[in-house]
From TrEMBL:
<keyword id="KW-0812">Transmembrane</keyword>
<feature type="transmembrane region" description="Helical">
    <location>
        <begin position="165"/>
        <end position="187"/>
    </location>
</feature>
<feature type="transmembrane region" description="Helical">
    <location>
        <begin position="284"/>
        <end position="302"/>
    </location>
</feature>
<feature type="transmembrane region" description="Helical">
    <location>
        <begin position="230"/>
        <end position="250"/>
    </location>
</feature>
<dbReference type="GO" id="GO:0005886">
    <property type="term" value="C:plasma membrane"/>
</dbReference>
<feature type="domain" description="EamA">
    <location>
        <begin position="15"/>
        <end position="156"/>
    </location>
</feature>
<feature type="transmembrane region" description="Helical">
    <location>
        <begin position="83"/>
        <end position="101"/>
    </location>
</feature>
<feature type="transmembrane region" description="Helical">
    <location>
        <begin position="12"/>
        <end position="38"/>
    </location>
</feature>
<keyword id="KW-1003">Cell membrane</keyword>
<keyword id="KW-0472">Membrane</keyword>
<protein>
    <submittedName>
        <fullName>DMT family transporter</fullName>
    </submittedName>
</protein>
<feature type="transmembrane region" description="Helical">
    <location>
        <begin position="50"/>
        <end position="71"/>
    </location>
</feature>
<dbReference type="InterPro" id="IPR000620">
    <property type="entry name" value="EamA_dom"/>
</dbReference>
<feature type="domain" description="EamA">
    <location>
        <begin position="168"/>
        <end position="302"/>
    </location>
</feature>
<feature type="transmembrane region" description="Helical">
    <location>
        <begin position="139"/>
        <end position="159"/>
    </location>
</feature>
<feature type="transmembrane region" description="Helical">
    <location>
        <begin position="199"/>
        <end position="218"/>
    </location>
</feature>
<dbReference type="Pfam" id="PF00892">
    <property type="entry name" value="EamA"/>
</dbReference>
Amino acid sequence: MNEKKDILTKTWVVAVLASICCMLWGSAFSCVKIGYSLMNITTNDSGSQLVFGGIRFFVAGLMALAMGSGAERKILLPTKTSIPKIMIISLFQTILQYFFYYIGLAHTTGVKAAIIVGANVFIAILVSSLLYKLEKLTAVKIAGCILGFSGIIVINLGGLSGVSFNFLGDGFIFLCTCAYAFSSVYMKRYSETEDPVMLSGWQFVFGGAVLTVIGFLMGGRLGHMSAKAFLMLLYLAFVSAAAYSLWAVLLKHNPVSKVAIFGFMNPVCGVLLSTILLGEKGIFGVQGIAALILVCSGIFIVQRKGNK
């Protein structure tokens, strides 16, 4: 057990495993859009988009709970005191975040979505510092936030793929990052007394069920379920369950700052894979590269002080 713990604290092991998490998360931007195409879900079919997302996260919750129960050698069940916490986290982490995410992603490019989502680090810091007073807002953190949001401004100047700011697309993706920021704060507070894998798994199950019901009520359905579409849905569920579980293991054996610094890979992987898988222009253009540099520099500056 001690040997396993020692291996998981080595910097190169953390770097490799954290990068795998970011590659998985980054691939979701492109794979969701591919999933829409395979299931014939159109841009304006918000109901079917939510059904798609709801089923994905319901399955992801079951996967996460199965992996967590296997690791703990006991079934991870919620208690009476944890149920309200699960619902609060689920409201922000899954229901609101992915309500905005799935609709927003259908109205913007994977490249722009990947970079805008990178802002969740800065928003989480502002929420944690200004609203919940969980940490101090320093000049270094402010500088990182300014750099990061500068990247979002650059990506929306109008030159990238010929598209300027679109509220239903870019705006909804930004609201998605705000919901994620609040969910991070609540997860940090509640995980002090609760198992974080249990909280995450059950909030996925609850949130996924809610999203699915909302989608069906909006007239959504998954009418075209080919073998490729089914496998894509399973892959996306696996992305959520596996990446979170792996990230949680790293956080268990390492300081948060040592793991979180690798989060800068998220927008990089998202933009790179959107360029390769979807053929979206962006990462090789001046605007795309400048935005990536600004966002990643901001994340690095914010995390660097904690690493010292």
